[in-house]
Structures are given as C-alpha cells and as structure tokens.
C-alpha cells in the first residue's frame, strides 16, 4: 500500500474501494446506533433526545407525511451525538447522500426556523427563517418545524418505538445516491 496518495496506483484504489463497500452498506446499523445514543442526552429538556426524535417522527407519520419527511423528523437532531451547537449541519451532511436536496436544506437550516419559537429568550433575532422564503423547501421546513419539531417535548406523548422506523431507515440508508 502507498504511503502518499500522489504515489498510489489504480490497483490500490480498487482495493480501497472494495474495502469501503461493507462500511458504506452498513449505514442503517450506524444510524440506529446514533439514534440509540440520543437516549443518554436530555440537554436540559423535559425529554431525552431519543424521545424527542421519536415524538417528532411519530407526529409526522400520524399527520400523513411522506417517508422522507418522517426520516428527517426522526434524524434531524442526530448530529447532537457529535456536537450540539452545529448539530443541524452535521445531521444534514450525514443525510445528504440519501435524501433530496430540499430535505438536506430543511435539516441544515432547522435551527433558523425553530428560532422563531424561542430565540427571543436568548437575545437572538427570531426571524432568521425569512431569509429562505423564496426557497422551494420553505413551506415544508415551516411544517416540519412548527407542526412537529418544536411541539415534540412531551414526556407523556405515546411515541412509536424506534424499531417501528427500522424498515424506513433500512430503505433510505441502503445505499447512497452516489458512491
């Protein structure tokens, strides 16, 4: 194997590509693992972050949302496993190869949309979502944020179990759009 990329060969890159495939196709298991890690994070909220994710996704499902919106609802905060301040961007980058461009932007910007409901308590502008008014995904982002995400902190809400979303996770993360 090479010690510098600029000295590599096609055969070495073929080998590397083959070694990547099992990891790439194991993505559904890693997504489930990350979701389970959210259970240990409450971050001061009245629910842990797994319950919040499940409540958001359950609400979207019960509202008849399309599968992509349900998967976004389930995974919108998964970036908190890595870092809270830019969790939306982290989650968006994780999801990007598996979802539409609109879905990517909804997750990437969801804090700007959610800020309308609480940024006044933090001395921040509440109207950050307005910068996206002309985007094709704006209406869906408002629905996601206002109907499900910001309303999903009820510890008594009867959520669908994580396992009930496993088929959807397996479908979305079976393979990225491009490899």
Automatic annotation (TrEMBL):
Keywords: Hydrolase. Residues 51-116 form the HD domain. InterPro entries: HD_domain, OP_Dioxygenase. The keyword Heme does not apply. It comes from the Bacteria. Gene3D superfamilies: Hypothetical protein af1432. GO terms for molecular function: hydrolase activity. Signal peptide: none annotated. This is Metal-dependent phosphohydrolase.
């Amino acid at each position: 194997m090479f010690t510098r990329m600029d000295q590599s060969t096609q055969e070495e890159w073929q080998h590397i590509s083959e070694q990547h495939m099992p990891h790439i196709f194991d993505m559904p298991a890693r997504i489930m693992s990350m979701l389970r890690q959210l259970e240990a994070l409450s971050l001061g909220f009245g629910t842990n972050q797994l319950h919040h994710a499940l409540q958001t996704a359950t609400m979207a499902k019960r509202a008849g949302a399309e599968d992509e919106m349900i998967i976004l609802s389930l995974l919108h905060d998964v970036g908190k496993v890595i870092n809270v301040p830019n969790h939306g961007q982290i989650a968006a980058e994780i999801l990007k190869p598996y979802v539409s461009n609109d879905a990517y932007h909804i997750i990437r910007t969801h804090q700007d949309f959610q800020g309308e409901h609480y940024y006044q308590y933090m001395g921040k502008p509440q109207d950050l979502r307005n910068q996206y008014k002309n985007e094709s995904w704006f209406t869906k982002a408002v629905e996601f944020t206002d109907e499900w995400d910001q309303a999903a902190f009820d510890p008594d809400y009867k959520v669908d179990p994580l396992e009930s979303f496993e088929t959807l996770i397996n479908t979305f993360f079976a393979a990225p759009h491009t490899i």
